[in-house]
Amino acid sequence: MERKGPKFQDYRVMKGSEAMGQAALLAGAEVIAAYPITPQTRMMEWIAEAKAKGTFEKRYLNVESENTVFAVLKGASMTGSRVFSASSAQGIFYGTEEIRAISHLRLPVVFGIWNREEYPWSLWYSQNDSISQASSLWTQIFCENVQEVLDLTLLAFRLAEATDFPVFVNGAGFILSHAEEGFWVPSKERVQAFLGERKPKFKLDVTNPHTFGSFVLPENYTELCGKYFEDLKKVTGQFRAVGKRFGSHFSRAYRAIEPYRCEDGPETLLLTMGADATVFKSAVDALREKGEKVGLLKLVLFNPFPREDFLEAIRRCKELIIHDRNFVGLEGALLKEVKATLFDVDRKPRLIGVRAGMGGRDVSRKTVLDMVTEARKTKGTSSLWIDLKRSRFNLEMKPIPGLDELAGQEDLMNPGHKACAGCGAALALRHAVRILGRKTMIVIPACCSSLIGGYSPYQTLNVPVFHVTFCSAASSASGIRASLDAQGIRDHQVIVWAGDGGTYDIGLQALSGAAERNENILYFCYNNQAYMNTGVQRSSATPVGTITATTPIESIKSENPKDLISIMADHGVPYVATVNLAYLDDFERKVKRAAGISGFRYIEIFVPCAPGHKVSSASIIDMSRKMVQSRMWPLVEITERGRQWELTVPDETIPVEAVLKSQGRFRAAEDYSLMQAVVDDRWQRILSRCHSPVGLVPGPSKG
Ligand SMILES: Cc1ncc(C[n+]2csc(CCOP(=O)(O)OP(=O)(O)O)c2C)c(N)n1
Ligand code: SF4
Q: H-type helices in 290-423, by residue range?
């Protein structure tokens, strides 16, 4: 079917997250750095694919945390490049220090936020992540649909460069990030004509040397702030101009506030922002059909709040119902902004603030209609919850229903958890707690085990479990240990159960700190050699030659994994070991030995992951054994504070090729001899640290 539309644009169907990536490439972003987090992941995978296929030729960096994402963008923008990335929720919180550095440096960074609820763990849509940054001097724009995701990301580059304030482009997690919609994509030439070249007013430049980011003393700081706020006040006007310019280039103009069915000046207005606007429009239509004069204001520009546009839009309104999917203190952010805006205005409408949709709860047309009914029942200005079910307040943890009776007295892990079939991580966890016993406290950072360990209100483990943020496992465990020590409790094991992403990458700083302090904790890294929970992206533990979502088939992982075993041993901690599920005797012996030692202990387990490694769930133990037999997973034990290395020689040796051919994740690897050489080299390095022959012990029994 031929689509009618501007000649210089293509009609495509894509996910919102892909549309945002597409916009960044059209805008000519030169440096993109990314770190996976649901629901942003598809965007970074799409860019990784573009890079692999050569449709994006500039720099794409898969980094080890969001703090680094923002810092890379800061450095690149400071050096004159157009830059881009996106994240969600915890990623935004973890990047906060850099977020503020970027805006205070007045760098025109454009960054997507795929809105997701915050702590405790939740994956679904709320706006708290964006709202948490409202004081950070970033301009914030909210998108209603996939077309707006593309358009407003393009517009954001122009706005950022015109205002020298960075811009967050916000899209509803899942609702827009994963929704496939048709939309118009302009040609690169048109986009370049709209944006022009980036012309930085200042940058790091040896021909014009200046210092940036240095101390500001009290005698100047106030003036600096004054300048920010003078400039911030101009942003709404600049948005108006850029929105109009967008219209003249692409036939779709944008305004800071978009009115819907407001032509006849309705006395009742609804106010919302983001993807909910579509549902609100349909509710307004329904009310109009019943003869009610109601209209909608959709806020596109949230930060700074477009004061003049808002006052103009509510000129004839007597009742304003304000929807928030977020909260700041006791109220929603929009309600607060509106109240502040109306503070010195004489004639104000009655305001009713309504909260709905927290944690991704659906906001349907009925929710909006209920909102209007409830709002009218209240007196004065109120802040209502429209979908709060008080009967659910008691979320006490309990075993998974129907399966509790299956939980044996001795087994500390209940059946019915959420791991995939063929999950080595779940099996390894079950064995670890069995060996360690009831006086064990487990700290789990974000990873697949966050779900395996139980989701509210169900619990999988019959020992205390503390789910913590991704980067903080070793530090949180240090705090638990310190408290137990302070209370004189010595016989409890405090363990960390973290994936390789949470250990090798984002958690490395905390891990290294706890090791250096020789905290009395037992740290388990279950290594499935990728970020599995977010959909199989590469980590710095991923072997050379692996296909992942961010190292697609056209450009398989080419970097060697970190040698974390040596790094931990070189911290001089009392105990470091590697284990494998196919060698359970060795596993059990090492865990028991570690449990009997005081101080920092580190055990790394190779765990198979059927979907991530592309193997059948029935083959996972055989596959684990092959990792040892091929020497791709050497079984080591390191004591005497890193000085005594022992290597358990496998009962049978097989070539690396045998493993590569049996795991789908290696299907693109061609140069088996190169990969054999990588494995041989590591083996030799380990051997050279062993006090041979003391370090060589007979092969273990088959598990
Ligand atoms: C600060 C922060 N960034 C990103 C995430 C998203 N995230 C949650 S789990 C996960 C992957 C964990 O990978 P790994 O530690 O290897 O464990 P696995 O999923 O393989 O079990 C990621 C990236 C997060 N929760 N917090
Ligand atoms: S993706 Fe892999 S690690 Fe995660 S639950 Fe499934 S099998 Fe286990």
A: 307-313, 333-342, 365-377
Q: How far apart are CA 453 and CA 456, in angstroms?
A: 10
Length of the chain: 703
> Ligand 2 centre and the CA of 427: distance in Å?
11
Specify the DSSP class assigned to residue 4. P
Tokens of 671: 């140069």
Give me the phi and psi of 20, to 5 degrees please: -70, -40
In angstroms, the CA 333 to CA 127 distance is 10
Residue in this structure with the two tokens 């990335």, named with its chain if needed: 85
- CA distances to 38, 307, 356, 402, 623 from 658, rounded to whole Å, are 34, 67, 55, 43, 10
Percentage of residues in the chain having pLDDT higher than 90: 88
Q: Is the CB of 66 under 6 A from ligand 1?
A: yes
| Cβ 36 under 6 angstroms from ligand 1 | yes
User: Apex CA 638: angle with CA 632 and CA 642, to 5°?
Assistant: 120
- The reply to whether ligand 2 has any atom less than 6 angstroms from the CB of 296 is no
Ligand nearest to the CA of 610: 2
Burial classification of residue 208, based on how many CB atoms lie within 10 Å of its CB (0-12 exposed, 13-18 middle, 19 or more buried): exposed
User: Is any atom of ligand 2 closer than 6 Å to the C-beta of 530?
Assistant: no
Report all structural domains of the chain as residue ranges with CATH numbers, in order of start.
9-250 (3.40.50.970), 257-392 (3.40.50.920), 406-697 (3.40.50.970)
Q: Of the residues 427, 455, 539, 609, which should be mutated to test ligand 2's pocket, given the most ligand atoms within 8 Å of the CB? A: 609
State both tokens at 137: 């001097």
Report, in this order, helix, strand and coil percent for the chain, each rounded to 5: 40, 20, 40
Tokens coding 331: 């109220």
Q: Is 37 in the pocket of ligand 1 (CB under 6 A)?
A: yes
Ligand 1: nearest atom to the Cα of 539: 16
User: Which ligand places an atom closest to the C-alpha of 620?
Assistant: 2
Give mean pLDDT, residues 514-534: 98
Model pLDDT for residues 104-123, shown as the tens digit of each residue: 999 999 999 999 999 889 99
Q: Decide: 532 and 422 in contact? Cβ < 8 Å.
A: no
**89 in contact with ligand 1, CB cutoff 6 A:** no
Q: Is the pTM of this model over 0.85?
A: yes
- The rounded Å distance from CA 607 to ligand 2 centre is 9
Ligand 2 centre from 634 Cα, in Å?
A: 22
Residue 427 CA: which ligand is closest?
2
DSSP type of residue 501: I
Instruction: State if residue 501 touches ligand 1 by the CB under 6 angstroms criterion.
Output: yes
Q: Strand pairing of 635-639 and 575-580?
A: antiparallel
Residue 437 in this model has a pLDDT that exceeds 90: yes
